[in-house]
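task queued by scheduler; priority normal; single chain, no ligands, no partner chains; default sampling; output format set to structure tokens
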Amino acid sequence: MSKLYVIHENDAWVEPLRAAFAERGLPYEEWFLSEGVFDFNSAPPQGVFYNRMSASSHTRGHRYGPEVTAAVLAWLQSHGRRVINNGRALQLELSKLDQYATLARYGIRTPRTIAAVGRQNIVEAARAFDGPFITKHNRAGKGLGVRLFEGIDALQAYVHSDAFEDSVDGITLVQQYIKAPEPYITRVEFVGGEFLYAVRVDTSLGFELCPADVCQVGDAFCPVGDTAAVAVTPRFRVVKGFSHPIVRQYRRFIAENGIGIAGIEFIADAGGEIYTYDVNTNTNYNPDAEAEAGIFGMREVARFLGEELGRAREPLSAARQPALEGSR
């Protein structure tokens, strides 16, 4: 019998999805792709495959999980299997430069960004910015590694120190710092290619922005934001009645790039201009924010995947029907 297959490398992030599958009685199997052996001359099983491989897998000791997953997705797609967040989506998950180049083709504004490889080249890239700037990894996740600098001297001291942390792919991004009038960003969630909700995320404690409980850190140091500020409101809050033309642009972007489930983050400057800076195809949801709003992302994901599984089974049933009729 065909079933759902969840491709991932982090048990903690899948736990809410397991509960949502159980509520609906959906058959599923997990493929934990940090390593393994795969016979690519065989045919993959029938079913629907949901890719949740993360760009931050290397921070959990799963350095080659994305590379293994890319090969497995190519295998699945070569056999015509239904893949949610396919190989193209994985490419976008693993490269912010790819994200920005692709977003631009859909008329979506991103912050000015310069890519650099090598410590001194990072410093030289930063000289193109007049004011504050951010460094971040091209292949990262959860906002880890994001640092704000007011000038070249501070950056130079950092990149030539033992504290410097290189991106796993060797590419560091030097990026325009967008100062928001209020310390928050907005994350727009999509399930099945359709808008689910938008969540406002307080950045006053930094940019460790993964919504899941397991991503929350007690000692929330990050050099971006006012670390002296104390959050007096929930850090994640679903925005009621969110409506913006950017949703239509995001919907087209994800539909044409193999993405079925994603969270896309943007920030607005003092003039109201919005800049999109991250696409998360391995999206998580904040349980407190969802409980307050009465909407639950993983339940919607389970509903969508269940519907996809039903559609995937229909051709199999239709293919069997003539043989059954002919045997009477």
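post-processing summary
- The mean pLDDT is 89.
- Residues 297-326 form the longest helix (30 residues).
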